[in-house]
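User:
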Amino acid sequence: MRIHRGSPIGTSTRARSRKKSRRLWVAGAVALSLPLGLTAAGNSNASPSAAGDGVGTTQYEDEFLELYEKIKDPASGYFSAEGIPYHAVETLIIEAPDHGHETTSEAYSYLIWLEAQYGQVTGDWGPFNDSWALMEEYMIPGAADQPTNSFYDPSSPATYAPESNDPSNYPAPLDPNVPVGEDPLANELSSTYGTDDIYGMHWLQDVDNVYGYGNTPGDPCGGNAEGPSFINTFQRGPQESVWETVPHPSCDDFSFGGENGYLDLFTDDAAYATQWRYTNAPDADARAVQAAYWANQWASEQGNQAQVAETVEKAAQLGDYLRYSMYDKYFKQVGDCVGPTECPAGSGKNSSQYLMSWYYAWGGALDTSAGWSWRIGSSFNHFGYQNPLAAYALSSDEALVPDSPSAGEDWGASLDRMVEFYRWLQSAEGGIAGGANNSWDGAYGEPPADTSTFYGMWYDEDPVYHDPPSNEWFGMQAWSMQRLAEYYYESGDELAGEVLDKWVAWVLPEVTVGNGADFAIPATLSWSGQPDTWDPANPGDNAGLHVEVVGHSQDVGVAGSLANALAFYAAASGDTAAQETAAGLLDALLANSDDIGVATEETREDFSRFGDEVHIPSDFSGTMPNGDVIEPGATFESLRSFYQDDPDWPQVEEYLNGGEAPTFTYHRFWAQADIAIALATYTNLFGEEA
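Assistant: Predicted structure:
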């Protein structure tokens, strides 16, 4: 029996308002995953928490405040002059952002979550409200940044262009003859909020104007003005790694790039117009909603709900627009969608996947006298982006159900679908596999005949990106299962509990906690097989879907998230081994503290790819704002010559010339926040006594 919406939020069987009640409930429960006395590594030595430094839960709250102060100290370097969290303190770091002083909607959402936890610990909700205001000012495009939304036609959301698995096949031709579905959200949203503008974060920002596209909020084409600017990178299919991208402005007025700015690198059109365009990362917006849910709960317990009410209302609005992430890219009918022209255009809600896809995007003309605009969803759904706690809040918390008439119902349906999605993707061992898509190869192609399905969508082993495969990084497991564990703690949903029981039993033997700073967690996963086709009335056992942990690491951010997930699971289930492993990881993380946070040394063999060639069409010629030439034969490094002035460049250059792989000690903002949040979470769940 599922029980996620049967009673109002705040009335679950677990005590929520008194730490002591929570602690006693857990202490009296029986461990479910491992026999008492066994560590996560499977030996009969001391428990992981005892093997570490033995920090008790009172100290965990103190350690939260100490780490929080390190993060917020301007001298540590986590924030810009505007107060924007950088992706990392260090600048020479290549990940999804291609420079450390860029930032992401992910970082903003982690700041909001961190400040919510600070409010829980201290009762001070000013920083939480300020973090939302900062995000709204700098990362949600304002009305001037999206000036032609009034021209949007929901009956014709966008012109179709096929995706390709190889960047060399771009630019992709626009094809107005392919039918697209109707957008069922636009009129409801504009009627509810009195505007045609989108209230959602763009995903990537150049905070220090490193590239030179700088602008100020409300002025999307500020040329070389100093200030954070919206930028984008990934545009050319799943094989385009960060090493093969061309960074470009979200507002393209043809000041830089080639004759048509950067547009003809990506899209083949008869003519080009200056335009703006933004892409939302749904997991980040959902994380912000998740944080707002807890802020509202904690502030209410303190009698301070009125202090956060306005921010929580904005979170509900963010969740209202986040429904765009549920939709097929071109609003086509979901299920058995084969052939660009043959797959039917959607109508009403039959183009909704009821999952959080990889993105939604919107854009339009800069010229308001010749206006047009467009909106798309995404046909690719990754398990790692799902957030059942956010869906739970948006469907049943009175303070967070959005104002649009159909929003609460949509999020309720999405919640059911997300939990089923996890169950469908759970391997025989317990790890959660990649995801599903409604558009094979991004072009509504024909999948192999034996491909299993989930509500008519096809199993996708590594949705969205293949270099490296998107199912490879264990961090997705920790992030997504942490949200599921929060939802399980709040709701008692039995299917969520079954998924977590099996997942935790798989993870614990793969975690090692030694003495002091010594620990190891899964890092790299290898997959084989596929799940059974989903039958909600009779789920399969997925005996043919397998995962193997092929590498371990000391990734401090993932370890923090894993500790958080295990703590919530332990609080909900009474699993003592999970609780002890969470404490052991926190002890080991604290033993890796330095002057500005928690960090371990990393070797970056992937930095050999600075010389990777970036595909530039043979007929394209242009320049970056600093004069770097964009032409065939350009490389990641040649398009970013500013890296040669970075203080850490010499060790990268030495590596490129045949030396040893460089090592770095990185302080990623999200990782520091994840650790701090886990420290406060443990105390909040288990009380002030060990």
